[in-house]
Amino acid sequence: MNALTPPEVAANAQGPMFLGLLINAVLYGIMIAQIYFFFATYKHDELWLKSFVVLIFVLDTANTVFDFTYLYECFVNHYGDVTYIAKATWIFATDPALTGIITTLVQLFFAWRIRVLTAKNWLAITTVFLSILALAGALATAAEEGDIHPEYAQLHKFKEPIIVWLGCGCACDILITTLLVWHLRGKKTGFEHTDYVVDKIIRMTVQTGLIRSLCAVVDLATFLALNNGVHLIFNLPLCKLYTNSLMSSLNARETTPSATKGNSRGSTTLSVSNRLSNTPSFSLLLQPPSQSRSDSDSGPVGIEMTVSKHRDSFNSRDSAFVSGRTCRPGTDIL
Length: 334
What we know:
With 334 residues, this protein is α+β, with helices and mostly antiparallel strands.
């Protein structure tokens, strides 16, 4: 049997990598746009959240740089070198490692959100457990690819770590999506705009969760069914789906627009808080009609109304309470 030529070897591994990297790069561009929007819009977010977004962005950038570097080494510095392109190097092994780390960080963030929204520790702990298992599988896969079985022809010999990685990651995504949708559906208040915001968040949660889960399932299915590198088309963009879903979630929040220089017009904010189970509130923005206002006006220029709904524990009747206070524009109302 004749040895494989460089084009045949590249078609089995580097070809699918190249296609996956193209998708990775496109999603990275979208990620940059979302990062810019986040820092331009939510300037008053807490420092820990901004730091978390920066960390995700740095890891995401490193993933793209390492993937480009590996393919450059294959196609330029080692062009035609069958021995080199037939093996995975430590540079390529950074892909499953960074993907696993990014995936886990994003899932831990959503686990924290589940804990805050539901006040149920066991739901968050279950999510964290699945996420940690996925991370362990991803790191084991990186070790296999980078040192133990670096030849691409042997990648299918260590299926267990990849099954744990992608299987647990997919299960965690489905759990996160189900819990968030289940809880958000109970947040509808009867106010049209607030219900619209809740429906928008539900749709986004389902769509991003479905895309992540579907990509992981297709990645795992092609890896198990096909004895080639086609699964890499779906594997390389995987971490970008997680980072973009995180930023989409953060950027879906509504804020009052900041006052422009020389303009002291106010805005009206309606904050709706459902006090059932002490869960966090939802807020919406009511724009006032255009009207002239003296530039010399100072002090409060808006009204924030908080509507809290609770159930009477004695006669099962619903009651509503409305309170109001003045506020200034440019305030984050999530």
